[in-house]
Amino acid sequence: MKSQKHCAALRRGLFLLTIMMTMHINFLAQTPLSTPTKALLSSNLNTTPRSDFLMPYFDQIEYWHETNPDSAFQLLHFVAQNISSKSPSFEQAVLQFWKARLTYKSDPNGILEEALAQAMISASSFTVQKQFFWAVRANNLVVSILLAQNKIDKAGARLKQTIQSAKSLQPELPKVSSLWGDLYTTRAVYLEYLQAGRQTVIKNLHRSLFYYQKAGDSKGIANLYLNLANYSLNPASALNYRKKAITYYQRINYNIGLRNAYLDIGRAYQKKYSDEGREHDFGLALQALKRTQLYLPERKRNDCEIDNTLGELYHEKAHQQPEFQQKKLLLDTANRYYQLAFYAAKKEGNFEILQSNVKHRSDICALQGNCQELAVEIAQAYQQFGKKHVKALEGAYLSLNGFEKQQIETNARQQQRIVLLGSGVIMLILLGLFGIWSQRNYIRNLKKSAELKMEALRAQMNPHFISNTLNAIDSLVNHQRNSEASRYIIQFSRLSRMMLHHSRQPFIALSEELKFLQYFLSLEKLRLGDKLTYDIILDPQLRPTELAVPPMILQPFVENSIWHGIQKKQTAGACIISIKKLNETSLECLVEDDGIGRKKSKELDEKSVFEHRSLGLSITEERLSALHKLKGTALSIEDLYDTGGNARGTRVVVQLPLLPYRDELAPEHS
């Protein structure tokens, strides 16, 4: 009897604790995390012995992650500060999952390496713990990030494994049905990347809709209707799908979904106005776009996508307006919206909108003749983005290193367990098999380590290149060469798109590398004028579209020749790039200049008050070293002298393996 009373008291205590937690979570949902609230949470964490005490906070992050991402980040940061190595492995894995999910959703520019590393860590941890629902969810996130990085083959292989794993889950559970809806949505995106055909993609979207309806997932259903609208060839059907989505979003008061639906409607009418020029369509587009602003978070006054689209709408109307004064007023209105979108995109780090915005504002300033101030603003924005890029990549590099270390430690623990299993003859057999397996695993780990290092080093090239280019733009602006700076910015915008695309691939076609060098040299020619001449010589035996090389492998050597050899020369200089077939297995790339030479350049650097180190060159040398472990490469740098012993330039010879090019050529495929 006494024991029953104690049990009843314990149940009442747990019930009260649950109520208090629920009240506390609801309070968090309505207010930002203040210092007293954090102190209260910290006290609860320190005094509560339950191992699953953090899970309600993760539930709140789940609720907030789309509706209130700022608060979700705040709460995630708080949980990360209070979780420890002694916390349950499941909670640590959930923390990594939400880090990946929030990083991925808040990053529209493809700087996704850190999110990918965190998602892979959580997926691996969930699998080891046999938390299969969470493992499928985390692997689906990995697939989404790989697709965003344009790694189609890797995404397809992991998606196939993920769908196979999901078949072991209980399909009657609503959360499992909703997860199947997510998987088929991801599969539709994957098939779209494969260009599998509109009907195939729509078939998978309808399959996803079936599972969301089975789960009663209103948000999933509404999202699917928006996707189906984008694939509808009939404008009336597309509008009907979007209205259905709005109905479901209104049921659950999902403001972000309502914002997206009305933005899609506004863009649809904007396109119709652009095609047909009917004033009625302009009014409907404006009405829908204005309505999107009703669903922005309270603290968010401007949205870069909405403002940029409003700017495009008024810009299009100005083009269709024949009367000069009216055209000027419309261009001024468009420019005001573009300015709002520009500052919002810079704040949010939305590089895609920033690029579109720069193009539109450049068109308007060219008509109005006031591009000087715009050139300075754009240079500052690109500089800010470059710094953010560097910071994100540094975090990704650390995460990848941590993931690699974790995998090595896990493998070591597994090996120890295998060794302890057998005895006697069985032990000898197991040891023999283990020796073979261990050797192969070592080779695979060595290969994987080199690949991860290559990926991280390749990623570091982008911020270095951006930094040097922004310094060049800044120099032009400071010297009042504003028209040149404006042309430089526009050309750099085109080049940066190619750079971001190439940086996601371990290998690209030689023709693409040569095209990139041509763009880079034309930028340097724009900066240096007659002081620089250059030539690219290709062996006629080679077919550049059929050969593979690492991306941006020659650009740092060319940049070094120009900045440290030719630029410091009193007279004009030349840079020659030649590529030839060395033998049946090797390609020889030569970069030669007639600059002042390495010794003289080093002396000038030592006398300068500014400390300089050729980061791009050192990164490229590390990349070649890592590549050598997998393929076999060689690098030599030679100082050139005339007959009198005077320096007459530098020659760099890079030897690369002669590899065939295919779209998703990765080291493990070779």
Number of helical segments? Answer: 24
- Tell me the total number of β-strands: 8
User: How many strands, what sense, and barrel or not for the largest sheet?
Assistant: 5 strands, mixed
Poorly predicted residue ranges: 1-51, 392-405, 445-454, 456-461, 609-613, 664-670
* Helix content bin: over 70%
Beta content: 5-15%
User: Which radius of gyration do the C-alpha atoms yield?
Assistant: 29 Å
Key features?
alpha+beta; five-stranded mixed beta sheet; 24 helices; 8 strands; disordered N terminus; disordered C terminus
Architecture overview:
This protein has 670 residues and is α+β, with helices and mostly antiparallel strands. The chain has 24 helices and eight strands. It has a five-stranded mixed beta sheet, covered by helices on one side. A three-stranded antiparallel beta sheet has the order 1-3-8. The N terminus and C terminus are likely disordered.
Write the layout of secondary structure elements.
Layout: H1 2-30, H2 35-47, H3 55-67, H4 69-82, H5 89-105, H6 113-128, H7 132-148, H8 152-166, H9 174-193, H10 198-215, H11 218-231, H12 235-251, H13 255-276, H14 279-292, H15 304-319, H16 324-348, H17 351-368, H18 372-419, H19 424-478, H20 482-503, E1 508-509, H21 510-528, E2 532-538, E3 547-549, H22 555-566, E4 573-581, E5 586-593, H23 597-607, H24 615-630, E6 634-641, E7 647-657, E8 659-660
Parallel strand pairs: 2-4
Antiparallel strand pairs: 1-3, 3-8, 4-5, 5-7, 6-7
